[in-house]
Amino acid sequence: MRRFTQTIENEILPLLKKQHGFQDEIVFVAPGSGTEGIAISLWDKKEDAETYLRGQLSRVLKALAKVVDGTPEVRNFEVAHSTLQETTARVAA
Question: So what's the pLDDT on residue 93?
Answer without folding.
Answer: 46
